[in-house]
Amino acid sequence: MDRAAHALEARSLSREFNGFFAVRDVDFRLRRGSMHAVIGPNGAGKTTLFNLLTKYLAPSHGSILHEGEDVTRLGMAAMAKRGVARSFQISAVFSGLSVRENVELALLRGRGLGWSLLGRISSHPALIDEADALLRRFGLSEQADALAGNLSYGRKRVLELATTLALEPSVLLLDEPMAGLGREDIERVTGLIREMGEGRTVLLVEHNMKVVAELADTITVMVRGQVLAEGTYEAVSSRPDVMAAYTGE
Ligand code: ADP
């Protein structure tokens, strides 16, 4: 297959914690342009796999490829430069900055510029227009001048997505984007993720099956550190072994 067909690929990837394999010998491919979800019961190794792919954790064995190139030894910053961005948890939203400043800062970071430039460049019309467009797209215009720290939990998650998209990644990795959200926010964030997936590759770890069924074209089911099944929602959800894994039989 064309080497660029896979945005990310894991080969025999394992991660051990004191003799326990949270992820064992996983072969995983994230097809370019796909919207791919990783699901599985608690403790299946989803977060560990996500953290390995995003370079938050180093593997014990195996390798990771980005567009066919071995990136196993690269760190998070190098991956970001290659256009692979993960949604950071809320801790990466700067509480002391306004919503607009958070978006402007992310736009600057997406261009490889640092935060020290914020004061100087934020008045640049192009940046203001871009920030405005992002704020509108994410429904944050009305709260543009509010301190990010004063936003509700749901709004912070939306801001987090806006700042991740501001980095203009080609591969977007989202860790439980619906966690802690109410119904309305889930609907909004589902729509936003669908939009964000246009022209990009998206990987999400998500517990909400309705969202997974709605968004993902490919689903990987993990159980006990390994891949149990892969395919469309219809295909994996009709498998008895997948049902059994969820019910703990
Ligand atoms: P999931 O995201 O599917 O719930 P995790 O990847 O968080 O699963 O965890 C998989 C297994 O690895 C669990 O049994 C968990 O206790 C273990 N594990 C994860 N991280 C660590 C760690 N830092 N130290 C020890 N064990 C860990």
Automatic annotation (TrEMBL):
**ABC transporter domain: which residues?**
8-249
**UniProt cross-references to SMART domains, sorted A to Z:** AAA
Q: Name one Pfam family in it.
A: BCA_ABC_TP_C
Q: What are the UniProt keywords, alphabetically?
A: ATP-binding, Nucleotide-binding, Transport
Gene Ontology MF, one = ATP binding
Task: Identify the domain of life.
Answer: Bacteria
Q: What is this protein called?
A: ABC transporter ATP-binding protein
What is the originating organism of this protein?
Answer: Aureimonas populi
